[in-house]
Amino acid sequence: MNPLAMATRLSVLARALPMRILLVDDDELELELLADRLRGAGFEVTCAANGEAALALMQERWYPLTITDWQMPVMDGLTFTEALRANGGADSYVIMLTMNSANLDYERGYLAGVDDYLTKKTPDAELFARIHAAFNTLALRRTLKDAQELLETTSRVDVQSGALSPKEMERRLHSEIKRAQRYRRELSVIAVTITANGASPDAAILRDLVKTLERTLRADVDWIGRLEDKQQVSFAIVLPEAAASDLPAIRDRVVAALAQYAAPDASNVELKSGIASLTSMIANGLQPDVASILRTAISDHAA
Q: Is the entire prediction scored with pTM above 0.70?
């Protein structure tokens, strides 16, 4: 395949991936010959004489693809790959160069983190095909990683309101309860149910209401999560370090803020709120967990 055509195709496949390759070999002649072949194909190439030098270069700059010799002084290719993976270089593709693959310990190499193997006498057609596969794999890995991060981010936030999602709210509230019990700290929750004209408010109103609620709370301390409730729209305002005696004043402040809330089509927004305190529940012989503290708060505002 024409090297220029290959580089062009790679640039499309790899999207934002830089066309950088790190070559690692103690044989200067072999190193320069391979570097010239790759540079002629349009790649940006950096060379290192051994694994230790390569690791130093990797700390300064990310190289999507590393092609390294196996046998080298100071640090061989296998030790280099193990160190690279141990230092968080999971997003780099490693091709191991060998003189002869007949007696190669492939299992040991793959366990160390080697992605692929090539003999040093590989013709250009196969060399560029393997490089093509390497960048294509990296592009796929990056796409999957971005998709996973997006999924994790969106799953933590309720799309309609901008508060924490029900699952994330329960997970985080569980942690808050355990922390309060471990350090004998206070923890309180205000349950809030919101309706507009007797129905569930639309997403725009919910986002504005959550922002209004957030302005009444302590920044980076208190937080809001949506409850899993198919019948109505409910939120939990979680207040670490807030004692039962603090709750009436906090609830009054929340209610007052929402009473002043004004938005299109939200003139008939109705709010119900209830409170629950960890220490009060324990004093009443109740076992505090996520379900019980939310149930207590919801029962209070229903009363």
A: no
Residues 253, 255, 257, CA angle at the centre, nearest 5°?
A: 70
Phi-psi region of 5 (alpha: psi -120 to 50; beta: other; left: phi over 0): alpha
Tell me which residue of 66, 29, 27 sits closest to 46, measured CA to CA: 66
Last residue of a domain, one of 125, 154, 183: 154
Report the relative pairing of strands 44-48 and 269-277 from DSSP bridges.
unpaired
Instruction: Specify whether 48 is located in the same domain as 142.
Output: yes
pLDDT digits (tens, 9 = 90+) for 2-49: 555 444 444 444 445 788 999 999 999 989 999 999 999 899 999 999
Q: What distance in Å separates the CA atoms of residue 80 and residue 300, rounded to the nearest whole number?
A: 62
Q: Please count the other Cβ atoms lying within 10 Å of the Cβ belonging to residue 297.
A: 25
Question: Residue 221 is part of which domain span?
Answer: 166-302
Q: Cα Rg for the chain, rounded, in angstroms? A: 30
**Residue 285, domain member (yes or no):** yes
How far, in Å, CA of 276 to CA of 294, rounded? 8
What is the CATH number for 175?
3.30.70.270
Q: Convert the pLDDT of each residue in 154-176 to its tens digit.
A: 678 888 899 999 989 999 999 99
Q: Is residue 159 part of a domain?
A: no
Tokens 């980076």 — which residue?
220
Question: Do the strands 223-226 and 233-240 form a parallel or antiparallel pair, or are they unpaired?
Answer: antiparallel
Cα dihedral 278, 299, 190, 287 in deg (nearest 10) = 20
Same domain as 196, residue 145: no
Domain count, the chain: 2
